[in-house]
Amino acid sequence: MSQSLRDRLGQLLIIGMPGTKPDEETLRLLKMGIGGIILFIKNLEDAGQTRKLILGLQNEAEHFPLFIAVDQEGGMTAPVRYAETISPGNMAIGAAGNEDYARQAARLSGLEMKELGFNFVLAPVLDINNNPENPVIGTRSFGGDPTLVSCMGRAALNGYRDAAILPCAKHFPGHGDTTVDSHLDLPVVLNSREHLLDVELAPFKDAVQDGLECLMTAHVIYTGLDPENPATLSHKILTGILREKMNYRGLIITDALEMSAIAGNIPPGEAAVRAFLAGADILLVCEPKLAGEVFSHLLTAYDEGRLPENRLAESLERIEKAKKLCCACPEHDGEVNPGELFDNIARDAVTVLKNEKGILPFDPGKSGENILLIYPDSPLKDVPDIAVVFKRSWPGLNCVKYSLEDDDFPDDKISAAAGSARHILFVTAARGPLPGRLAGWIKELLKKYPEMAVAAIWNPAHIISLPEAPAYIATYDFREHSLEALRQAVSEKLRPRGRLPFELPGRDNIRSRSNTT
User: How many CB atoms sit inside 10 A of residue 375's CB?
Assistant: First the structure.
């Protein structure tokens, strides 16, 4: 086995690493020609450490420059937590309905990632959020309308191109209409072939026509396209539809092969071979302990004649072309102030979905002393406490915090504080559907306080579980820009203009972007 062949096969792999410095196994694989590294929160401390780490990794790559990838989607999916350019997420941009927001947010993020040393950003998400029970996509999507998702996605792709960083549309052919998280199990989508081609695939088809450089596969079975194999392992989908029918010429990268949707049914090493034979060019293995095993399996498969030389040559040609794109320098003309842009996105995204009896906006008084805020522990460590943001303007605000991890909710504290409150705002924050225990508690509170308003600062679809709520407002995001926009919206400092960018089943009275009202 020649070193040259190991180098060539190694180019097919992007791997994760365990800590803030490369361990011995990572260094060994780099010497063997691994094609790239993906970095996560666990690998990143601050800007200085990130630049030093990436430079060191590139110096360890003896024959080819590395892809240095990151899942910096924006919104609540941002592993570079200390970044200055984390905009409100895709669904907030979809609710605002402004393509320039999508392009500028992507451009600013791309420029910062490029400055840190990254050359490959696994974004934007082109999944259509057409299932409100989806536990993993949600506000990572621009919305539920294929035309909206396509317009915003293409704008974001152009923003990344402006920053001279390689983008990656995901998750082909669409992870939005699932009720299962592919990290945990294998989702199955039963939609017809015609529906999938017209709806789920539409944003990807438009992106391909625009010259899409890279896309990521979904670990999902689509019975209308291939009833036996998830897209990642499907020759019918990756080669038959994507390469041949859609005439796609860019890179295909798999989602992580150790995710349970794949690894629960087939060992990652064999999955890597099957994904390559299906049409994938890059095999993503984020779990460091598995990377060496997958590489060894590829070497064995080549020796056994299972990896055709012509297929390997095609993938290597695409990889080489993409790596040349990564070396381009961005243009810095027409700089945009991130804070101003993100404030505008957040303000334009805030959506009032329901407002019976004119409960919103509140009259906060001089210091917010007549408002009771009931809010959760933050689901993420790198975002501000909502009470801290509100109290900057309303120092007298009454606050009660709750946690889903507690055995009991703070009913006594709420009862004590509600007596002097003229207004009550209950805040939910969860990516997926509203937890049943929390929904039950909110319903009980609504019986006691029938004019209590509800704010969803992550998933707006929580309203499905709360038909009793007389007033309901959504921000799609709970970073500081969005929390401040919420504070302004509930106090008449801001007139909410956002439109819910997807349909809610059985909620004809909800204002959505596909409505005329």
Answer: 22
State the pairing for strand pair 423-428/453-456.
parallel
Q: What is the pLDDT of residues 158-211, one digit of tens each?
A: 999 999 999 999 999 999 888 878 888 898 999 999 999 999 999 999 999 999
Nearest Cα neighbor of 172 from 252, 75, 258 is 252
> Which active-site residues does the annotation give?
183, 255
Closest CA to 252 of 184, 334, 318: 318
Nearest to 95 by CA among 148, 135, 131, 146: 148
- Residue in 88, 270, 244, 271 with CA at minimum distance from that of residue 182: 271
Contact 312, 9 (CB under 8 A): yes
- The DSSP output letter for 282 is B
Give the single-character DSSP code of 498: -
d(CA 473, CA 91): 14
Helix axis angle, 338-349 to 99-116, nearest 10°: 140
Residue 226 phi, psi dihedral angles, 5° rounding: -155, 105
| Strand order through the sheet with 214-217 | 169-172, 214-217, 251-253
Q: Token digits for 252?
A: 């295909």
Sheet holding 188-189, edge to edge: 188-189, 221-222, 226-230
